[in-house]
Amino acid sequence: MGKKGCSKIQNNKLNTYDWLCDVPDAANATDYVEVQFKNTRKGYYLNSSKIPLEKGDLVAVEASPGHDIGTVTLTGKLVLLQMKKNNVRTGEGNEPKKVYRKAKPTDIEKYEEAKAKEHATMIRSRQIAADLGLNMKIGDVEYQGDGNKAIFYYIADERVDFRQLIKVLAEAFRVRIEMKQIGARQEAGRIGGIGPCGRELCCSSWMTSFVSVATGAARYQDISLNPQKLAGQCGKLKCCLNYEVDAYVDAQKDFPSTNITLNTGEGLLYHQKTDIFGQMTSYSTDKEGKGIFIQIPVKRVKEIIAMNRKGI
C-alpha cells in the first residue's frame, strides 16, 4: 500500500501528482502546504505549528477576515516547485498566511452551511445586477469557510462600476463582498466538462495560465476554419490549437510559398493542400480546387519553381 500522498484521492480540479512522495525526507523539505478551495482556487500556507498533514486533509487556514476551510492537495518538496511555477513570493513584505488546525466538526458544519447558500446567492445576485442595469454576468459565488465573506466571480466585456452593487449585496447577504473578474476560459475551467476529444477539459484538469489563441494557429496546422469546430465550450478558440503549432511552424520553414503557381508547360498548377510532416504538397489545375489533385514532393516543387524562374 503506497502513501496517501501518492494516490489521486483528490477528485476535484487541478490535481497534481506528487512524484516525490516516496523520496526519503521530501515530505519534510518545507513547512508550506498547498491548499485548494472551491474549483480552481489554490493557496500556499505555512504550517508553522508542524501539524502532521497529508494530501486530502481538511484544514482551517488564515483568511482576511476570519478563517477559511480547504483541502490539502500537496505537501513536501513539490510545494516549493509549485510556488516557484506560480510566482508565489515569500520574502520580506510578503507575510505568509498560516495553517491554523485540522478542521474540527464545528468548522466543517459551518463550512457546509456556507457552501449550501452559494447557488441561491448566485441566482439572487444575478437578479440584483440585472435590476441595477449592469452589463456583467456573475458566473459563480464562493463563500469563505467561516461564512464571513463571499467571492463573486464575474465576466464583463467592459469596465463595470459595481460600487452600488457591492452595497446592495452586502445588505442582502450580510457578508463581506469581494468581486473577482474572470475570463471565459477561466469560467469554463471552474465549471468543468468533457471536451470533443473525450477527455476532461484542459482548463479544469491541469492548466493554470491561459495564453490567447489566434486563428493563425489553425492556419499553420492546415485545419479547416470552421468556427463551430475550432471553438471550445467557453466559446473561444480551443487552447489545444496552441499545443503543436510551434512544431508546424518549424517544419514549414523549409516549404516554398503557397502563393507561387507552378508552370509545367501543359498549364498552371495551383497550391491546394500541404502535408507538412509527410513533406508532400497537393496542387490542382483549377484555382478553386475543383480539378484533380496532384501530389508533388516538396523537393520536386522547389526544383520546378527554380526552373520556372529560369524560364523553363
Descriptive overview:
Helix content is 28%, strand content 21%. β11 (280-284) and β12 form a beta hairpin. The longest helix is centred in the middle third of the chain and has 14 residues, at 118-131. α3 packs across α4 (163-173). The chain has 312 residues and is α+β, with helices and mostly antiparallel strands. A 5-stranded antiparallel β-sheet has the order 2-1-4-3-5. Strands 9-10-11-12 form a 4-stranded antiparallel β-sheet, with helices on one face. Strands 6-7-8 form a 3-stranded mixed β-sheet, sandwiched between helices. The radius of gyration is 27 Å and the shape is elongated. It is built from 10 helices and 12 strands.
Largest sheet: 5 strands, antiparallel
Low-confidence residue ranges: none
Order of helices and strands: EEEEHEHHEEHEHHHHHEEEEH
- pLDDT average, as an integer? 86
Oligomeric state of this protein: single chain
Q: C-alpha Rg, in Å?
A: 27 Å
- Estimate the strand proportion: 15-25%
> Count the helices. How many?
10
- Described by the principal axes of the CA atoms, the overall outline is elongated
Distance between the termini: 74 Å
What is the SS-derived class? alpha+beta
Extended strand count: 12
| Widest β-sheet, arrangement of strands | 2-1-4-3-5
Measured as a percent range, the helix fraction is 25-40%
